[in-house]
Amino acid sequence: MSAPAEAIAAGRAVLGIELGSTRIKACLIGDDPGDILAVGAHDWENRLVDGLWTYALDDVWTGIQQAYARLAADVRTRYGVPLTSVRAAGISGMMHGYLAFDDADELLVPFRTWRNTNTGAAAAELSDLFGVNIPLRWSIAHLHQAVRDAEPHVPRIASLTTLAGYVHRSLTGRRVIGVGDASGMFPIDSATGDYAPGLVERYDDVAAGRVPALRTLLPEPLRAGSPAGALTEPGALLLDPTGALRAGVPFCPPEGDAGTGMVATNAVAPRTGNVSAGTSIFAMVVLEHPLGAVHDELDLVTTPAGDPVAMVHCNNGASELAAWAGLFGRFAAASGTPLDPDAVFDVLLREALQGEPDAGGLLAYNHLAGEPIAGLAEGRPLLVRRPDAAFTLANLMRAQLSGAFATLALGMQVLADEGVRLDRLFAHGGMFRTAGVAQQLLAAALDAPVAVGETASEGGAWGIAVLADYLAHTDLDLGAYLDARVFADASPTVVGPDPVDVAGFAAYLERYRRGLAVESAAVSAL
What we know:
The protein is α+β, with helices and mostly antiparallel strands. The chain is built from 17 helices and 22 strands. It folds into three domains: 1-95 and 162-174 and 223-264, Nucleotidyltransferase, domain 5; 97-160 and 176-218, no CATH class; 266-452 and 496-526, ATPase, nucleotide binding domain (Nucleotidyltransferase, domain 5, 2-Layer Sandwich), CATH 3.30.420.40. Helix content is 39%, strand content 18%. The strands form eight sheets. A five-stranded mixed beta sheet has the order 3-2-1-6-13. A five-stranded mixed beta sheet has the order 16-17-15-14-20. The longest helix has 27 residues, at 499-525.
């Protein structure tokens, strides 16, 4: 029996599951947390229902079961052993949003995801009340908007949580949450790792008589390494309806995708940061000192260990790029030369490197949803060009990639103006599977070296598996654990900013800023 097969058979492997915006992924790691033994995935999509972005909870469980079943099948194919137990496990998911339950744990209204931008009035009121920026997607903004609107379900709310918190509670019975995920629900006091008490009291004063006391609604925050319950018998059947998986598996605190992205890129220490690119795109920068002012472009969240982080979050990431790839994939199939989706992406991304540094005068807005950093309550994907622009495939794809990074660059400039400096910036997400392309253009957009590791495409599913492994290594702080046990032998690929690309992106971004008036007009007119 091979070493991986023996580890799996003995129940020493560690399981991580992440519910991303377009894919639910399961990842199994071995005795060495850098050793990915097996993976399984299930594609899914959010839906726009009655003007709000949502996922059905039935789809949550269908997707988790499919991803786990495919991982278990991968295990049997590769190693010839069944997957019946693991040493530890963890759940990660999209942060923020609104999952409100009554005292019977019944969902009161459909899940409202981070992508919704209907909470502007509530977010503005809370930002003034707290003296910190409360973004539209935060759970407290969703709650307060429902309170302001006097939605009928509000008096019946008994608990609030995130997607990861909901899945974790269903599997373990524990109403807890990782502190990083919690920091996207309500502001966290990094010194205590708990919700900021003075702000909780301010909110209770404002919402008195309209909603139960906030502290009774929110899940308990836990730092990385804290025991967070164990898989119950009903939970085991939820995860694996075949009954092969045994109960009793210890779970780490459920975390948000931002926190697991930081772990997956070893970006949990001051002066480190990471960029995660998916349906949304965001940067996380661990702070050395407090910021000098409140900025609408920045969230203040935490690492999974509770340390302060500035987050630049853009609602729109790679979805529009994927739509163009789907279009060209269909063209390839219709022409009689079908390509699988990964091959289509590879061809198109490599073509982007042949484009002009400023995309030849083309502009691409990837705004499927509203984009607060750009001042947009709604989105309208646009491709805009002057009649004399060089309309080539290379420039089109260069514009699409540059457009995916443009709003992020606007937010990162605010951090730079605050004097925040980075020693290293790591990137992860599916678009970085094509070696060097998105990485090169991101380095140009942020004018900083960008590193990508071998686990970049596994992202948060691997990150939450690593956090589950950390349950057995809490004699070290999280940063020391990652340095010593996970990344000691890592050799990421680093791409520095090319001056020609930097100048080209700067020209693109200046046109992009001016062109936001066109995007705004499209939202009004269409």
